[in-house]
Amino acid sequence: MAASNESHPEEFILLGFSDRPWLKLPLFIVLLLTYPTAMVGNVAIIVVSRVDPRLHSPMYFFLTNLSFLDMCYTTSIVPQMLLNLGSSKKTISYTGCVLQLYVFSIMGGSECLLLAIMSFDRYVAICRPLHYTLVMSQRLCILLVSIVWLGGMAYAFSEATVTLQLPLCGVNKLDHLLCEIPVLIKAACGEKEANELALSVVCIFMLAVPLCLILASYVSIGRAILRIKSSEGRKKAFGTCSSHLIVVFLFYGPAISMYLQPPSSISRDQPKFMALFYGVVTPTLNPFIYTLRNKDVKGALGRLGRTVLSSKW
Q1: Count of Cβ atoms closer than 10 Å to residue 28 Cβ
Q2: Which residue, 46, 38, 52, is CA-closest to 308?
Q3: Section 95-116 average pLDDT
């Protein structure tokens, strides 16, 4: 393969599940179904949160950002996967790989921080209800979301840029479905222990620290819920928090198993299944989790649906 210069090839061959050709058709069908489902579900969350005045609260402001983030997250990888699965050509240009790497990393880093911010919102709402409107002001919410996106960008531009500087020594095959930092580090040649160490340290701050804050918030939330006297109040408080907790475990579980271990120790198929999980499965399930377990969202969707239908008649 001719290289555009000494540092990187013109394109990468994404091997994916080439050793399991029987997976090609089922995976293509699954992605073809889940991608539009994820897009429609997340667009619905964004629209209903903006249109319905009853959802104009910090919780749904953060949920709107999560839905937008999930749309970008899954869009950064699924179209390329479908293209490769639907044709004999399994390549991605170097420029396309770099773009995918940055977008995927920005969204991943931002989601880690956003889920922590959402748990803080639930903590204030349940543990400090009388101070909620004062603490979670519009100004603070915008500031927190700005920190989330800037934090995700800082993570991506630091880690991805350093990773792209690693020499590949003519290697243009990636045993993966997409361009991802641990896989590129693993494919690089020469000394890369410093990169592995840097990735682990950064991921401790981007994954472990937010997760600890989330768990600490929910310990306090759990105690507060147990002190609520009415069963209806406990049920409502638990309902709003359980959706977020499910999303946290769906995202953080695969991400931790992928990023908090040295890339050299990652098994061959682990990155593929993990990327499918937190890049495809989680963004698809999130709208359903927040809709099915949240009466406010279900009610808002019902009202929006009735409004649309009545306007047609």
Answers
A1: 15
A2: 52
A3: 92
Query: HSE of 289 in the Cβ direction (CA atoms, 13 Å)?
Result: 22
- For helices 209-227 and 231-259, angle between their N-to-C axes, nearest 10 degrees: 170
Q: Which two tokens stand for residue 222?
A: 């759990």
Lowest-confidence pick of 2-6, 48-52, 95-99, 128-132: 2-6
pLDDT cut 70: percent of the chain above it: 92
Tokens of 30: 């699954």
Closest CA relative to residue 35, chosen from 238, 286, 283 = 283
Query: What DSSP state is assigned to residue 13?
Result: E
Average pLDDT estimate for 235-248? 80
CA distances from 82 to 74, 88, 192 (A): 12, 11, 32
Mean pLDDT taken over the chain: 84
**Which stretch of DSSP H or E encloses residue 296?**
helix 295-312
Instruction: At 179, list the tokens.
Output: 């361009």
What's the CA gap between 55 and 179, in Å, rounded? 37
Smallest Cα–Cα separation from 234: which of 243, 226, 242?
226
Q: How many Å apart are CA 97 and CA 293, to the nearest integer?
A: 37
CA distance 164 to 101: 10
Report H helices in 86-230: 94-127, 132-135, 138-164, 181-187, 193-203, 209-227
203/182 Cα distance (integer angstroms): 11
E-strand ranges in the chain read 11-14, 91-93, 173-174
Q: Retrieve residue 236's tokens.
A: 């409502």
> Which structure tokens are listed for 279?
């890049």
Q: Are residues 202 and 162 in contact, defined by beta-carbon separation less than 8 angstroms?
A: no
Measure the CA–CA gap between 243 and 121, rounded to whole angstroms: 14
Q: What angle do CA 100, 48, 121 make, to 5 degrees?
A: 75
In the chain, what percentage of residues exceed pLDDT 90?
28
Which residues touch 62 (CB under 8 Å, ≥6 apart)? 114, 117, 118, 121, 141, 145
